[in-house]
């Protein structure tokens, strides 16, 4: 045991000599080294700017080390894809086996570094557009080591700036005054470097993959079946009075203008449907007949739901496993119906401009103002 | 209408279909790919257990720079959801980040059902009862779930 401790100390000292202060030694009771922690970056001849990925390698040494293999944890990976992490894990385990009984810490660091050097482009997708970085894409690294297409980050920063500007123009009571917003990383909310500005970033070309937009398959059978299933649920709940009746609530309560703000989104983009809708009834739309598929979520009938006195359970099973084409699908078009009503309300009032009656709240009050919640 | 739909939305939709979140189902409308029909199952152990809640979700033009707009359509007795089904959730407002997704939003809503927060209310009367008489509030929430949110 004592001999083993000495060997470990020696190995770690050698390591520190090579890697200087990059190695952090983890110590247990009485100063016994129990492991090391190293932030590993790709080998780029000390050119920090060209290090696009990194990971923290934690090597825990069991008391029996080196006769027992250390365990390895990879923490805070930045720009490293899961596949690469898995590869590092595999190679590390292999290396540990080969070096059983011998010092292996430096070897492990090399495994990680080699993999990072071989994959020194951020291989995780851009969190803003969800697409990977191609060789020709321009990307930007934040100081927290998160990557974005420069164009995507530019759009984000421009949007933040616009919002901040809009907020400043709004008269707000003193108690609502906010401190000036620091730009935050979209992923980890760490502050991002002030040098980054939207004008420069937006000079970059949009991400390549995103450019060629493909057709959206709205008639996918699985999708249609799900839509149909949801429409059925909506109808059933509506029959039982379980669906919020916006019109009724609107008449019952005094609403602040934020309701209109809120539904502008629904309404504005549903203009086309609004023109198709009937004036004062929910949109009746024949649902496409297709084979019903079970919802991917456990419906109460399947789960441990309280059994009802009638044959609900049975009906449910029929609904999910029903005979192909056996469902008469004439129903209210779930959400779109209501949303369309809203669309009419807003569009009808002149392109989304709320009418006087509804504008009871302060102008520009929005959803994020909790105090404008519904007055009862 | 499909033309010009950002790939991000397509990608999110594909993933929602291929790897649905347990207890959550989100499907785009057949005529508007930015409008989603959503069903969230009441989380186990919550007063909403056994219920299936219909929501509508809309991705505004600026998405993902702006948050999706989400609303409960099924009636629900919850201190952070008002009578119109509007949800009080920071990530839908000032804590929105384009790194969040439809998936994360719906997960957060599911979490909100598990952990109602009467100290940050949207539905004031509900929150009030939740604070002064929690067991009664939970009883009502259960009753509403049974009355309005059954899936069969
Ligand atoms: Zn991007
Ligand atoms: Zn970050």
TrEMBL record, chain A:
<dbReference type="InterPro" id="IPR006575">
    <property type="entry name" value="RWD_dom"/>
</dbReference>
<dbReference type="GO" id="GO:0010468">
    <property type="term" value="P:regulation of gene expression"/>
</dbReference>
<dbReference type="GO" id="GO:0008270">
    <property type="term" value="F:zinc ion binding"/>
</dbReference>
<dbReference type="GO" id="GO:0005634">
    <property type="term" value="C:nucleus"/>
</dbReference>
<dbReference type="Pfam" id="PF05773">
    <property type="entry name" value="RWD"/>
</dbReference>
<dbReference type="GO" id="GO:0061630">
    <property type="term" value="F:ubiquitin protein ligase activity"/>
</dbReference>
<keyword id="KW-0862">Zinc</keyword>
<protein>
    <recommendedName>
        <fullName>E3 ubiquitin-protein ligase RNF25</fullName>
    </recommendedName>
</protein>
<dbReference type="InterPro" id="IPR001841">
    <property type="entry name" value="Znf_RING"/>
</dbReference>
<feature type="domain" description="RING-type">
    <location>
        <begin position="126"/>
        <end position="189"/>
    </location>
</feature>
<feature type="region of interest" description="Disordered">
    <location>
        <begin position="273"/>
        <end position="376"/>
    </location>
</feature>
<keyword id="KW-0863">Zinc-finger</keyword>
<keyword id="KW-0479">Metal-binding</keyword>
<dbReference type="InterPro" id="IPR013083">
    <property type="entry name" value="Znf_RING/FYVE/PHD"/>
</dbReference>
<dbReference type="GO" id="GO:0009893">
    <property type="term" value="P:positive regulation of metabolic process"/>
</dbReference>
<feature type="domain" description="RWD">
    <location>
        <begin position="10"/>
        <end position="119"/>
    </location>
</feature>
<feature type="compositionally biased region" description="Polar residues">
    <location>
        <begin position="363"/>
        <end position="376"/>
    </location>
</feature>
<dbReference type="GO" id="GO:0033554">
    <property type="term" value="P:cellular response to stress"/>
</dbReference>
<dbReference type="InterPro" id="IPR016135">
    <property type="entry name" value="UBQ-conjugating_enzyme/RWD"/>
</dbReference>
<dbReference type="GO" id="GO:0051246">
    <property type="term" value="P:regulation of protein metabolic process"/>
</dbReference>
<dbReference type="InterPro" id="IPR039133">
    <property type="entry name" value="RNF25"/>
</dbReference>
<dbReference type="GO" id="GO:0016567">
    <property type="term" value="P:protein ubiquitination"/>
</dbReference>
TrEMBL record, chain B:
<keyword id="KW-0547">Nucleotide-binding</keyword>
<dbReference type="GO" id="GO:0016740">
    <property type="term" value="F:transferase activity"/>
</dbReference>
<dbReference type="GO" id="GO:0031372">
    <property type="term" value="C:UBC13-MMS2 complex"/>
</dbReference>
<keyword id="KW-0808">Transferase</keyword>
<feature type="active site" description="Glycyl thioester intermediate">
    <location>
        <position position="88"/>
    </location>
</feature>
<dbReference type="InterPro" id="IPR023313">
    <property type="entry name" value="UBQ-conjugating_AS"/>
</dbReference>
<dbReference type="InterPro" id="IPR000608">
    <property type="entry name" value="UBC"/>
</dbReference>
<dbReference type="Pfam" id="PF00179">
    <property type="entry name" value="UQ_con"/>
</dbReference>
<dbReference type="InterPro" id="IPR050113">
    <property type="entry name" value="Ub_conjugating_enzyme"/>
</dbReference>
<dbReference type="GO" id="GO:0005524">
    <property type="term" value="F:ATP binding"/>
</dbReference>
<keyword id="KW-0067">ATP-binding</keyword>
<dbReference type="InterPro" id="IPR016135">
    <property type="entry name" value="UBQ-conjugating_enzyme/RWD"/>
</dbReference>
<keyword id="KW-0833">Ubl conjugation pathway</keyword>
<feature type="domain" description="UBC core">
    <location>
        <begin position="4"/>
        <end position="150"/>
    </location>
</feature>
<comment type="similarity">
    <text>Belongs to the ubiquitin-conjugating enzyme family.</text>
</comment>
<dbReference type="GO" id="GO:0016567">
    <property type="term" value="P:protein ubiquitination"/>
</dbReference>
<protein>
    <recommendedName>
        <fullName>UBC core domain-containing protein</fullName>
    </recommendedName>
</protein>
């Amino acid at each position: 045991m004592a001999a083993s401790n000495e060997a470990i100390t020696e190995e770690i000292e050698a390591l520190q000599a090579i890697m200087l202060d990059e190695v952090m030694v983890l110590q247990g009771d009485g100063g016994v080294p129990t492991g090391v922690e190293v932030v590993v970056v790709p080998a780029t001849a000390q050119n920090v700017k060209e290090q696009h990925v990194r990971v923290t390698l934690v090597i825990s040494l069991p008391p029996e080390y080196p006769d027992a293999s250390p365990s390895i944890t990879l923490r805070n990976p930045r720009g490293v894809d899961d596949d690469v992490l898995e590869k590092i894990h595999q190679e590390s385990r292999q290396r540990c086996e080969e070096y059983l009984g011998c010092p292996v810490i430096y070897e492990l660091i090399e495994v990680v570094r080699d993999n990072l050097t071989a994959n020194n482009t951020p291989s995780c997708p851009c969190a803003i557009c969800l697409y990977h970085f191609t060789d020709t894409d321009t990307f930007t690294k934040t100081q927290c080591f998160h990557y974005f297409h420069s164009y995507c980050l530019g759009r984000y920063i421009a949007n933040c700036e616009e919002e901040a500007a809009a907020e400043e123009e709004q008269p707000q009571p003193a108690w609502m005054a906010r401190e000036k917003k620091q730009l935050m990383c979209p992923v980890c909310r760490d502050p991002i470097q002030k040098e980054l500005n939207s004008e420069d970033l937006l000079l970059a070309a949009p991400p390549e993959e995103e450019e060629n937009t493909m057709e959206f398959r709205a008639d996918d059978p699985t999708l249609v079946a799900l839509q149909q299933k949801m429409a059925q649920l909506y109808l059933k709940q509506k029959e039982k009075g379980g669906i919020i009746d916006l019109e009724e609530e609107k008449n019952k309560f005094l609403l602040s203008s934020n309701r209109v703000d809120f539904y502008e989104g629904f309404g504005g983009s549903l203009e086309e449907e609004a023109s198709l809708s009937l004036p004062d009834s929910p949109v009746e739309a024949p649902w496409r007949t297709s084979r019903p598929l079970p919802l991917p979520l456990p419906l109460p009938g399947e789960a441990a739901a309280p059994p009802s006195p009638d044959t609900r359970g049975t009906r449910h099973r029929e609904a999910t496993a029903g005979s192909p084409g056996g469902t008469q699908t004439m129903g209210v078009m779930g959400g779109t119906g209501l949303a369309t009503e809203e669309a009419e309300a807003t569009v009808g009032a002149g392109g989304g401009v709320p009418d006087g009656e509804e504008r009871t709240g302060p102008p520009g009050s929005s959803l994020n103002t909790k105090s404008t919640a519904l007055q009862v | 209408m499909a033309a010009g739909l950002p790939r991000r939305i397509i990608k999110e939709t594909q993933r929602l279909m291929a790897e649905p979140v347990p207890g959550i189902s989100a499907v785009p409308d057949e005529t508007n790919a930015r409008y989603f029909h959503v069903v969230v199952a009441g989380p186990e152990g919550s007063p909403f257990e056994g219920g299936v809640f219909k929501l509508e979700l809309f991705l505004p033009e600026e998405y993902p720079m702006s948050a999706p707009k989400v609303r409960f359509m099924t009636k629900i007795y919850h201190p952070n959801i008002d009578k119109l089904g509007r949800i009080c959730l920071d990530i839908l407002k000032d804590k929105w980040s384009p790194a969040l997704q439809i998936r994360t939003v719906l997960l957060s809503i599911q979490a909100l059902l598990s952990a109602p927060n009467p100290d940050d209310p949207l539905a004031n009367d509900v929150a009030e009862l939740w604070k002064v008489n929690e067991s009664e509030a939970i009883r009502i929430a259960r009753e509403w779930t049974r009355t309005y949110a059954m899936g069969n």
